[in-house]
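Q: I have 272 residues here and want to know how they pack in 3D. Can you give me a structure?
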Amino acid sequence: MDLINSGIDGALKLFFAVFSWAPPLVGLAVISALVGVGMLWVFKKTSNQARMKQVKRRVYASLLELRVFADEPGVTWRAQKSLFAANFRYMGLALQPALWLAVPMVLLIIHMESFYGRAPLPVGREAIVTMGMAPGWDAHAAAPAVTAPAGVEIAGPPVRAEAAREISWRIVPHGEVSGEMVFRVGGTAVARRIEAGSRPRYVPGTNVRSALAGVWEPAQPRVASDAVEYIEIAYPGATLSAFGVRLNWLVWFFGISILAALVMKKRFGVVI
C-alpha cells in the first residue's frame, strides 16, 4: 500500500507543479475534467449500455403515461408502479460501474486533500502539534525532545493529556516555512513535516504508525517509533474561490467532473 500511495502522491505532485503558475482552482479544474472523462470511460466499459437504454425508455414511457392519462387513476397507478420498478432496475444497473469507480475515487480524494483541502499555518498565529502515544505510555516520563526548523518557535512547555494519551506543543511560525520538526522519542528520531505561510502548497496530513490508518492518511511516511501512534498539526482548512464564490475543493471537484461527464457523454456514446 505504501508503494501505491507513493505513486499516487508522486503523480499528483508532478501535476501540481505543472500548474504552480496558476491559482489552485485552475489545476483542480483540469484534473476534475480528466476524472469526469475517466468516469465516463469506466461507466461505458463496465455497464450494460443496451439494457440501460431499454430501462430509460421505460422511464420516459411511464412519465408520458402519467402526463397523458392524469385523469385515469387506474392507468396512473400502473404507470407509477412501472416508473418505480424501472428506477430500481436502473439503480441496479448503475451499481456495477459505481463499485468499479469507488476504490480509485476514494484513493484519489484522500490524496488530493493534501493539495487542496488544507492551508499552511498562518504566520504569527499559534498552532498546536499533538503526538498520540501508544498504549502503556508513562505520562510522568520526560516528554520527547523537539527540534523545530528555522522560523518556527516552540511557544511553551509540552502539555500532557493522560486519558487521551497525548502530548501537545504550542508553536508559532514567524515566516514562510517548509521544513521538518524532529521529535526524539527514546532513541528514535521521528520527523513531521510542517508548512507555514500564505502560498498555496502541498500540506500533508497526520503521520500515523499503523498500516490501516495509513490508508486514510497516506501523505506522510509512517511513524517509525512503536511508542507513537500519530503526530498531528492543526492546519486550517482551505477553500478555493472563483467569480466571487468561495467553496470547499470537493464541491468544485465533483461539480466540474460531473459537468465534464455530461458534456462529453454523447461524444463517448455513453448512456447515463
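Q: Anything worth noting?
A: The longest helix spans residues 73-117. The first strand starts at residue 127 and ends at 133.
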